[in-house]
Design a protein that fits this description.
Layout lengths: L6 H23 L7 E6 L9 H6 L3 E6 L3 E6 L3 E7 L4 E7 L3 E6 L4 E4 L8 H13 L4 E2 L8 E2 L14
Antiparallel strand pairs: 1-2, 1-6, 3-4, 4-5, 6-7, 8-9
Length: 164
């Protein structure tokens, strides 16, 4: 058993599961309304599959757009296959979820960003830890609302008050 809970890894797994679920729905039903995705992924990831000319053009990362034209979307447990159009040239890609750096749906102002400890410098680490130490009650933000809604502290209620 570990000495601590790896919240970062747990959160990343949950966010990748969300992406998988969204893509499974799109594979079955298509993109609803104005939804579209900007997906940035690590082209150096061992399991990323893309044409050599794309890998040469994007040696470290690449952002793809799933909007008007995409084909052969196949969602799997560890990643997804999709054929996208690059200058009237259809190219198949395989993107592992572990390679995804950002997933954004600008139509609803939704985005996920995956950062590893290597992506943060010491100053950012200190800021994040300071925020965690000084954090007030959690805040829930709903994209439909204009302002965050503060969570109230839990109250202990006696069950006797509900008995007849």
């Amino acid at each position: 058993m570990s000495d601590s809970i790896d919240y970062g890894n747990l959160m990343h797994r949950a966010m990748r599961s969300l992406i998988q679920e969204v893509l499974e729905d799109v594979a079955q039903n298509g993109l609803p309304g104005e939804h579209h995705f900007f997906i940035t992924f690590d082209t150096t990831h061992a399991d990323s599959v893309l044409a050599n000319w794309l890998r040469e053009r994007y040696p470290s990362e690449m952002t793809v757009v799933m909007q008007h034209w995409y084909d052969n979307l196949l969602v799997e447990e560890d990643g997804f296959h999709v054929t996208l159009n690059f200058g009237d040239q259809p190219e198949p890609l395989y993107v592992p979820y572990d390679a995804i750096k950002t997933f954004v749906d600008p139509s609803v102002e939704f985005g996920l960003r995956f950062e590893s400890p290597d992506d943060l410098d010491e100053e950012e680490d200190a800021e994040i830890l300071a925020m965690a130490d000084e954090a007030p009650a959690p805040v829930v933000v709903d994209s439909e609302q204009e302002a965050p809604v503060e969570q109230k502290e839990a109250e202990v209620v006696s069950l006797d008050s509900f008995r007849k």
